[in-house]
Amino acid sequence: MKPFTYQRAETTQDAVRGIKTPGAKFIAGSTNLLDLMKLQIEQPAHLVDISKLPLNKIEDTEEGGLRIGGLVTNTDLAANERIRKEYAVLSRALLAGASGQLRNKASTGGNFLQRTRCPYFYDTNQPCNKRKPGTGCSAIDGYSRSLGIVGVSNDCIATHPSDMAVAMRVLDAVIETTDSEGNTRSIPLEKFYVLPGSKPNVETVLKKDELITAVILPKPVGGTHIYRKVRDRASYAFALISVAAIIFEDGTGRVAMGGVASQPWRVKAADNQLPNGAKAVIAKLLENPKTTEDNKFKVTLAERVLDGVIKEARG
Amino acid sequence: MKLSNFLMMSRRNFLFATAASSAFIAISKFAKATTSTPDTHKTNTNTVKMTVNGKPQELTLDTRTTLLDALREHMDLTGTKKGCDHGQCGACTVIVNGRRINSCLSLALQHDGDEVTTIEGLGNPDNMHPMQAAFVKHDGYQCGYCTPGQICSAVATLDEIKQGIPSHVTEDLTAEQKVTNMEIRERMSGNICRCGAYSNMAEAISEVAGG
């Protein structure tokens, strides 16, 4: 690990002031950042520790939804009574991710910002446009079984690893931030991530000095909530395909997919096809997929997983 | 050194002693070749106060020190093991403020004011924690390297079930949690055992849970 200076932030203002230090990064749960620092993929010169800030509450909003503090742990969020009853897809997604130890540490804000687990991003001996812009993509002609099939570019086919974010996308979550000038803004999750294009190192619309303070869930929409994750082993593995779905009695609903793109993948026209079955949904959701020999199985797998989800919802 | 003294040394002390003598040789050779130390490796330090196994600790550490390294190298609590050092194997599992975490994926400085319990804090050979006794009884290990992490994880797992925290295999998210073999296996998936003593561990954990 490269040397860095360390600051324990006492308040949010403290934290956003500290982030102005050259080379500074926020650290919260540390489950991803510290791992990347050990590999020198991340080399912050200064760490602003926000883990003890009072952003760990889950509160009701006036609109009947929930305001989830950015530092609420994955375990606490999954176990929250209202999340379990009214936003079950989120609870299920969180519990399908990582291990008990990691969920106890990982924060809500950090989960959105975790980096891809593309094997070439992690291997510092290999070119990677996300890790080192302009060096090339080793994955496109390499081992790409776990990688993306939609929204990918000629420079990057990495997937976003989060389960939580897929459920948040289907729930229309909104991310709240504050910056070093004290400005706050609300970013709908559908506008939070950016496609890789020619700059796969840029992953979100967040500015460098912006801190995720909370996530807002609109009031519950009812329906049957399902999160189904398919992976190479039964537990503690990233998704090959995951489906977050809310399906209503009349067969309409919403669907988002994980394991296929650099962000949780949802397409309005695909939602509209839900009453017509999995094949119709996938035709829109994974329209014109850009696959490799290694990961072309994902298109078929996605349809089968979604078909199972729709059948489960219909009972 | 007399042979009898040599045999009385623990393996750990012996390894330390041999490592120290080779380091000494290496340093003396290096000292001849250089006259000054370049100032490019500046170390940043900070202090942290935490309670470990009921004992208050105040440490001044290189900012890069993980909780795992602080326990092992600065507090001599070597029961906690370093396996992968990347949060994938669970050998470093300790309990912080009642919740199990991977101590390798946490900076020691982030634990100011925290209460940490390691395997040494759960019990000792003369006064074993029920989970330790159950692991012995059910032969829940072979080489033993992952065992401290497995036991810390198992103790916290049963507590999580008691607190009503659901898991991936919990059928009804709103019903009371049950301790089943599937629940134990899913919840313990963050602890890898390369000897494959899983079924015996599951029996040990199940016995402690009263199953």
What is the terminal-to-terminal distance of chain B?
A: 53 Å
Instruction: Indicate the CATH topology of the largest domain in chain B.
Output: DNA polymerase, domain 1
Shape of chain A: globular
Number of alpha- plus pi-helical segments of chain A: 12
Low-pLDDT regions of chain B: 1-9, 14-18, 20-36
Secondary structural class of chain A: alpha+beta
Helix and strand element order of chain B: HHEEHEEEHHHHH
Number of strands of chain A: 11
Class inferred from helices and paired strands of chain B: alpha+beta
The first-level CATH class name of the largest domain in chain B = Mainly Alpha
**Portion in helices of chain B:** 25-40%
Q: Strands across the major sheet of chain B, in which order?
A: 2-1-5-3-4
Compute the gyration radius of chain B: what is it? 21 Å
What profile does the largest beta sheet of chain A have? 5 strands, antiparallel
Separation, N- and C-terminal Cα atoms of chain A: 52 Å
- Beta-strand portion of chain A reads 15-25%
Describe this structure in words.
The complex is a heterodimer of chains A (315) and B (211). In chain A, helix 5 (88-96) packs antiparallel against helix 9 (164-170) and helix 11 packs across helix 12. The termini of chain A are far apart. Helix content of chain A is 28%, strand content 18%. Chain A is built from 12 helices and 11 strands. Chain A is of the alpha+beta class and 315 residues long. Chain A has helices spanning 12-18, 33-38, 74-79, 81-86, 88-96, 100-105, 108-113, 119-122, 164-170, 268-272, 278-285, 297-314, and strands at residues 5-8, 24-27, 46-49, 58-60, 66-69, 174-178, 184-188, 211-217, 224-230, 241-247, 253-258. Chain A is globular. Helices cover 40% and strands 13% of the residues of chain B. Chain B is built from 8 helices and 5 strands; from the N terminus they run ααββαβββααααα. Chain B has a 5-stranded mixed beta sheet, with helices on both faces. Chain B is globular. Chain A binds chain B through residues 1, 3-6, 8, 27, 30-31, 34-35, 38, 47, 49, 51-52, 75, 78-79, 84-85, 88, 91-92, 95-96, 98-102, 104-105, 234-236, and chain B through 41-44, 46, 63-64, 66, 85-87, 90, 93, 99-102, 105-107, 109-110, 112-113, 153, 156-157, 160, 163-168, 170, 173-174, 185-191.
